[in-house]
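INFO batch 0412 | record 1 of 1 | parsing
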Amino acid sequence: MIKRLVLLLILLLVTISCGTNIEKTERHTGIGTGGLVLSLKWYTGDKAKAVIRRSPPAGVATIRITISGPGMTDIQQDFNAASPSGTINTVPAGVNRTINAQGLNAGGTVTHTGSISGLTINVGQTTDAGTITMNPAATYSVSGTVTLNGVGLAGVPIGIVSVRIPGGTSNTTITADDGTYTFAGVLNDNYVVWPFLTGYTFSPNISVTVNGANQTGQNFTATAVVVASTYYISGTIVDTNGAPLAGVAVALSGSNIVNTTTDSNGNYSFTGLANGSYTITPMQSNYYFSPINLTATVNGADATGENFTRSSISTASFTPLVDTGQTTVYATGDDASYTIDPPSYTDNGNGTITDNVTGLSWQKQDDATTRTWDAANTYCAGLSLAGTGWRVPTRRELMSIVDYGKYSPAINSTYFTSTRGDYYYWSSTTYARNTASAWLVDFYYGGVGVSGNKTYTFYVRCAR
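INFO prediction complete | emitting tokens
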């Protein structure tokens, strides 16, 4: 019933000369080498159940034989468990020889052990060492607790894997109601233990060495992963008769630029938004929208009712083109050669100026404060100066009060006082190539430019 593991030990006989006589005992146990034969029987599981195998049990990949004794250096040889036979050379003859046998798994962890001692190896003879019983190696436990806010966390999967086995021979368990866990039957080795549960992170990272004792107190602290709340911005786009419009492109600019289109009911929405300020701009060829764009602030709640009305270009109201303000003729046919709609203003005596050509009302004097584009829109919308209804002017509207017959500032300073000639003023017109930017007008010489970003700060003069 027991498969024999034959260790054929080749004798390397040493020839002694010099003419001396060697007594019989010395010839048998002294100088030289001998051989031995032995068998292994394997117990698996609980030895009391007497489960005996004739061949190595599953999981045993290597059989390691170590021979030791007085007056010799230990000899070790490994054998493949699938074909447990081989040769160990140069085993010194002598008394009180001990054979230690080990079964190892693929990672090198000892799973079974056995030994026999008191053997005599005679020179030139093969000794039958008998049968070595291979018992399962001693096992231990690894245990600990997983807590959340100081309270045991139940139902957390826990894994354990030997670091010496790539890809890992591993085991898993789940924490009990009080957050405790235990891995039993753990062999001596180095391990990594880790919990894993969606929605949580765990600390610390734990490596544990099992070496002849149970390893307790392998504890983890769980932290719930907080998912930031998100919100949405929505509105409706209709025509001048109040009919909903489908298929209108709508752009949202903020931390990112996102686009959508209105549905069959004229509704649009942008979802998954974090708190912040956003600009909504509808776009459709050959149409004009009122307002041109809207600023919506998300602060712990959805922003709804961001609505627009579309007008066709043929019915839209346009601002007349004001003359440039140049009155000196520098060449025949230049601006000063023609007078069509010369600039004309009225000071209303209440901090506002009326443009008699375009019909627009303006702040006579801005508040000398630079703002981001969003803040400028908010400031004008909240301005109460001889009434409400103020807004950031469009690029063309802002250009209409530039006087190209002047510079620094390039504006009629009799009506528009304290205008900064060394800095730009915001328009409400978004730059089409990059909707994170907007058009600017420089009142030093009347130039037009584009902001690098709407988060930059410039002056604003409100209109209505």
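INFO post-check: The radius of gyration is 46 Å.
INFO record closed
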